[in-house]
Specification:
- α1 runs parallel beside α7, α3 crosses α17 and α16 packs across α22.
- The protein is of the alpha/beta class and 556 residues long.
- The chain starts with a helix and ends with a helix.
């Protein structure tokens, strides 16, 4: 078996069933012929790591991608940066030039390892074919364990073979033992102290971050919330830990919070964060810790404990295991939690009804260009439960981050951008999301700026029958820079005076495209999109919108 053929079999043996690249990489070539693997060939190398991130988020397995030497790998750097920021397990398996001519001006020669080291957990070259399986196993182990993240492995032509000039490397056998995810429980003493604080708290609030989702902690998280009658909120990365229809769900924290989440968080006497680094956007630049509140932090990596706020109790361990420990310890205490009771539950339910009614009324606006919040709210109502919401980075599409303008409901999940917010991750991530979860509705809410960066992948969606929808909130600009420019100097340089016909572009790429310009046309267009998606047809809906940023002033 040839080396890259063996690599493809190793990827499949790891339990991964999809790889992403543009088709010219050796991995994609052999993945095409490997049983149990699907080689998804994109139009631009930079799309591959973003799609692999969405795959990892939804499958619970590492995402795998590749690119050709030099500029192909350079195009993957933004995706690696996003994966590192978002703790996304990503394995990039790529080739590199012949070591025998390194330094002589070889074609596409560049320092690939130097490019990748700052944006990965590990960047390494395989220089001995007999250690190939060790390197691949190590790559998957590092990508999955501790704080998950991206790993880059390059295999030189003189080690793995060069298809361009004929395969000359030695034949190897795919001896490979799959890497395993290792989980650690929390220290029993610190778990017991945390349980005591939770039982004593009268107004506890629990927050879920990316780490809670990566650990598959949803079941234990919701049981603890219900056991203590404890309302919960999430960061964008924790969204989907539980249905936002749940009586105890408050929505999101930080920049994307609503008045309900703000009220309950800032009046809490105890805050429990699960799998969150408590970064700037999730905390209003670290202002969102209520005065005098006790703080419990759970994180898989000990070095994250106290990174920003120093906890009263910090527990290093896998979120799912630690939450199960807390539940068991609380049961053993056989004590009525101070925060439970029908009065608080009734109070939250009443506040939620009032918030929902207020947002329904607010989103009934008839202004044109459309208010983005109205489009997002209509989308939420039409696509409903069993939906994967894929977020994008922009101004008007930020309304999709905010509950209850958009509700991540029952059997639903969210694929967010990470803290770097690389534009385009959501646009292409929607394709991978549909391929990974074909039985769910998939929608990406995006601005026209991010969409135009990556609409080159529309033919990819059509080619693979990825029936997803892009809701393009089109304000003919890069909204966030324009907003800040107007706030500071009074003019902006981000408005587009020439715009493509996005619906026509979609149709030219084999998708359904429609521009919606009447209030009466909003809901029918969304309903039609869902119907077409169920037939495997990708859909682009272009909605002209204004520049409303009021939510983010309210959330402060």
């Amino acid at each position: 078996m040839y080396p890259w053929e063996a690599v493809a079999h190793m990827v499949q043996a790891q339990g991964v069933d999809m790889t992403f690249g543009i088709g010219d990489s050796h991995l994609q070539l052999y993945a095409e012929k490997t049983d149990g693997l699907r080689a998804v060939n994109v139009r631009y190398e930079g799309s591959a790591p973003f799609m692999a991130m969405a795959y990892a988020r939804l499958s619970g397995k590492p995402g795998v991608c590749s690119a050709s030497t030099g500029p192909g790998i350079a195009n993957m750097v933004p995706g690696a940066l996003e994966a590192l920021s978002g703790c996304s397990p990503l394995v990039m398996l790529c080739h590199s030039i012949n070591q025998k001519t390194e330094g002589m001006g070889e074609f596409q020669e560049c320092d690939q390892l130097g490019m990748m080291r700052p944006v990965t957990k590990w960047a390494v070259r395989v220089n001995d074919i007999n250690r190939l399986s060790w390197y691949v196993n190590r790559a998957f182990s590092l990508a999955m364990n501790d704080q998950p993240g991206p790993v880059f492995v390059e295999i030189p032509y003189d080690v793995g073979g060069d298809i361009t000039h004929g395969i000359s490397a030695d034949i190897v056998e795919p001896h490979f033992r799959a890497a395993t995810r290792l989980r650690t429980a929390g220290d029993p003493d610190t778990v017991s102290r945390a349980a005591d604080l939770l039982l004593q708290a009268k107004r506890p609030v629990m927050l879920a971050g990316t780490g809670a989702m990566l650990s598959g902690a949803g079941g234990a998280f919701m049981r603890l919330a219900e056991k203590l009658g404890m309302p919960f909120a999430t960061s964008p990365g924790g969204r989907g830990i539980g249905s936002e229809n749940h009586p105890l769900a408050l929505g999101l924290v930080g920049m994307y919070r609503n008045t309900l989440a703000k009220e309950y968080l800032m009046s809490a006497d105890l805050v429990l964060t699960v799998g969150s680094r408590n970064e700037a956007f999730q905390t209003h630049r670290w202002e969102d810790m209520p005065a005098g509140a006790r703080f419990i932090q759970i994180d898989a990596v000990a070095s994250e404990i106290g990174r920003n706020w120093v906890p009263d109790v910090g527990i290093a361990g896998d979120a799912s295991l630690v939450l199960q420990q807390l539940l068991q310890t609380i049961e053993e205490h056989n004590q009525v939690p101070a925060g439970t009771g029908s009065a608080r539950t009734t109070e939250i339910a009443t506040a939620k009804r009032e918030l929902l009614a207020a947002v329904d009324s607010e989103c009934a606006t008839t202004e044109y260009p459309f208010a983005a919040k109205r489009i997002v709210h209509e989308l939420s109502n039409v696509f409903g439960n069993n939906t994967v919401l894929v977020n994008e980075n922009g101004s008007q599409d930020s309304w999709s981050f905010v509950y209850p303008y958009y509700t991540v409901g029952d059997q639903s999940i969210c694929v967010p951008v990470a803290e770097q917010t690389c534009m385009g991750m959501g646009v292409v991530g929607a394709i991978a999301a549909k391929l990974t979860m074909p039985d769910k509705n998939v929608v990406c809410v995006t601005g026209d700026g991010a969409f135009q960066m990556y609409m080159k992948e529309l033919p990819t969606a059509a080619q693979y029958g990825a029936g997803c929808t892009w809701v393009v909130l089109n304000n003919s600009s890069f909204g966030w820079p324009g907003y800040y420019q107007m706030q500071t100097v009074g003019w902006n340089t981000t408005t587009f005076t020439v715009q493509p016909d996005l619906a026509a572009v979609a149709r030219a790429c084999g998708c359904h495209g429609r521009r919606v310009e009447t209030l009466e046309g909003i809901r029918p267009a969304l309903e039609e999109a869902l119907q077409l998606n169920n037939k495997g047809i990708p859909v682009v809906l272009d909605f002209p919108v204004g520049q409303d940023m009021t939510h983010f002033d309210r959330a402060r």
